[in-house]
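Listing S7. Sequence submitted for prediction.
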Amino acid sequence: MFKKILIANRGEIALRIIRACREMGIQSVAVHSTADANSMAVRLADESVCIGPPPGKDSYLNIPSILTAAAVTGAEAIHPGYGFLSENAEFARMVEEHGFTFIGPSADHIDSMGDKVTAKKTVMALGLPVVPGSPGAVESVEQGLEICENAGFPVIIKAASGGGGKGMQVVKSANEFKEAFTTARREAKANFGDDTVYIEKYLEKPRHIEIQIFGDKHGNGIHLGERDCSIQRRHQKLVEEAPSPALPEDEREAIGKLAADVIRKMGYVGAGTIEFLYEDSKFYFMEMNTRIQVEHPVTEMITGIDLIAEQIRVAYGEPLSLNKDKIKLRGHSIEIRINAEDPETFIPSPGKITQFHAPGGLGVRFDSAIYGGYSIPPYYDSMIGKLIVHGRTRDEAIKRMRRAIVETVVEGVKTTLPLHEWIFEQEAFLDGSYNIHWLEKTLAAKAEAKEQK
């Protein structure tokens, strides 16, 4: 097994990996920007190395600095976490070329799945259903309008190299298409350095269902059930749960088996997630994430499996310790993402945490790197923690989450905890009938009603 692993990330995921390393008897190295010198990851890692100033491009995206830190500390492997360089194929190649092990899939798989057009073609050939739309990149307004006529409006224009809702435009009629097409390409170029876009049929009331998969270097591939990530705002997930309240058992098993078959055919190694839109009992491939997900704890809670430790073992060359026939999904788990943001305007709220108290009790887990007196830097994503609960039933998990939200104290900055408290009172969430458009529409109606008072 590896003796020392460098973690090329920050915040709660860096701390999560450090904890897995410690339990496995592996030394950990935390890299950090000058803004993160007092972070919990730096405090708890066995070693730490400053790799640059706060902007991501000068530190957490600085490949030469990260590789140098790995070399000088004698690390054998690099774990990228999620975000930053986790899905950067060139980084994965350079890690391997410099004699380190990249804890993730091959650079070729990151490449093929990172481009949404290539990914769509790849999985279609392997048997996954896809949303009707363009077979590849759309080069012109005229070509796009022809595709829209075949698919039918509304459609959504997406950046081929995109994610997080950037470079997306929903188009309801032909009259809107030209402006939306130009805007999508401009946003794609600005955010990803690539103006390639493609078109898909816009589904009216879909759910976002993702399948957690795992493969090893010995040809094994399995799935660990699904997660429902349909509570979203501007394509950003806010609440995730497993299993989905929308799937009957036969559909759950069928889509899981199909996803596992695909990654075996691909020869995929490591953790990954195949994401689908689900509507009227039909699944449509959306994208594949070639990394560990933010919401991986809900899968850990219902399986009892440490997914980070499994990533490390598989990267070292060991066969999967997981056998699909022996994996039993137990109970129900829900996760909320807590952001340092105004819960109504969603404006980021960096600053010093004056008081902090984590919730506890049976079935409650709080993944975070914050502490009392910690100053949240303004340079990075606003997520400061993840509150995860587990219950024997969905109803029990919901009640447990309500209790845990009330117990959580984060003072000195604004957080989205009040928003989550409100979500867990809404009928559409309680009965599981929500879809990916529900939260935005409900918030818009709530704001309009407030203005009219």
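Caption to Listing S7: primary sequence and predicted structure tokens for the chain studied. The radius of gyration is 22 Å. The chain has three domains: 4-103, 132-201, 207-452.
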